[in-house]
Design goal:
single chain; alpha+beta; NADH Oxidase; 12 helices; 4 strands; globular
Amino acid sequence: MDKPIASADKQRLFNCAMRAATAGNMMLYSMIEVSDQSLKDKLAVSCDNQPFIAKAPLVVLFLADYQRMFDYYQAFGADKWAEKQGRKFRRPQEGDFFLAINDALIAAQSMATAADSIGIGSCYIGDIMEQYETHREMFNLPQYTFPITLLCFGYPHHADLERRLIPRFDEKFVRFENSYRRFEDADLVHLMDRTEDWQYKGKPHMYEEGNIGCYQYQRKFDADYNKEMTRSVKAALKNWKA
């Protein structure tokens, strides 16, 4: 539904995100509320053409952000301190990139969980990782930031409330003890048993490739948007390390 989210509820969501666990209490993330309709319209196109993004009452961009802490270090003269100590002044690297991603996603999920608790639905948009150059320009993103996820919030239609619990894989495929487990083909053919009916019921085109596995491969893994995401992330990492 396009019903606006009350300002008190919106603030509650941001408060919960701010209380999320964070590495070393550094809060290596930033949140950008996208309220400008023209920006939402652009995101609806750049994020793999998903029109509902433009209609969402609340859209929040989560950034993996090491720029703020790096600027903080420089503000306190850490670069000069390192020089006096005869040490090379360190800049953010790949490990810092992934640590900031963790912080941002933990904050995002904290906000999504808080929204669910007060009857507000949410949808993750991973396609924000595509079109890195476009999104960097749209939101004036500095070097040590990366748009890791976009969250759209809104009140679900009453008809949707009865089907909110989307089926997941059987737990045996996900939960292990002490060691990772790989599966035999005979087990893997049942991986999608719980989700197949929900995702593909009434969609006979899924069998064009012969089976659900091949359909998933071409629709999710080998799709053009996924290839663009890989290119985009490589470009972001290259810029991060420049």
